[in-house]
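user: At home tonight, take the chain set out below, taking as long as you need, and be ready to discuss the fold:
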Amino acid sequence: MTGQNVRWGILATGGMAATFTADLVDLPDAEVVAVASRSPEPAKAFAERFGIPRAYGDWESLARDEEVDIVYVATPHSAHRTAAGLCLEAGRNVLCEKPFTLNAREATELVGLARDRGRFLMEAMWMYCHPMVRRLKALIDDGAIGEVRTVHADFGLAANVPASHRLRDPALGGGALLDLGVYPVSFTQLLLGEPSDVVAKATLSEEKVDLQTGALLSWENGAVASVHCSIVSGTATSASVTGSEGRIDIPYGFFFPDRFVLHREGRDAEEFTADPADGSRNTLKHEAAEAMRALRAGETESPLVPLDGTLAVMRTLDAIRERIGVRYPGEAG
């Protein structure tokens, strides 16, 4: 990568792509130079909306654009393997939306491809880059609550979508688990690593995707975690981490918190709040900034969102789907 600004390409033109592109405006060293869609019209409209100089009506042209330093892949997750793989094959660096892929097999293929090509690859797990989540993890790593023994986390929305919607379409990786459950699973594994055992139950739709799922994860050291996700009911979307010497409670929006509370026996509760200088709690700029920092440092992966951690999360999501009986078209089994 050369030059002061990091030159971004945006692959896809939906809501996530628009949100991410708008947040890049907050980063003075970021420049969006190209956008691609499967057809010219949405790419041109997106380019006009955000003042992007080049619009491509196919993914391949963006992947071959050597004036793009990194591509943000914001397609539905069923297309992540194809889209990110195309960019990596062409020599582009990639920031790929969550969930990283449909399954661990696809994720392993992408990671292997990036490592073979020496290209930067990172899952856009913005939670891991959020200043308050990083602060929480640092406290736990420093022993603020002792040894972590229990984690609870949930994410549910009353989506009320028809069977034709992507959330209920097996061909698009539909269901609560991959779209929402990836957050409580990723939060739990940020603190405890990959579980040794997984138990799960779910309510399935007529299309055989999960409408809601609950899972109990356990570790050989005795730690346990309960995670829940739903597209049929709005939940507290909160999290709690209990250790041998205390507890941390995170209210609504645990994956982009503006505050959390530390409880320790014999002490007053301590509330930690976000630094106003960090801006809005609901922003994707922190993940973009981390990707650009890594590129400038010559790193091929981020220590905040390591690829081995992404692979571990995908293995857990696969294990949960195996337990609840959700399989997507084209998957072996």
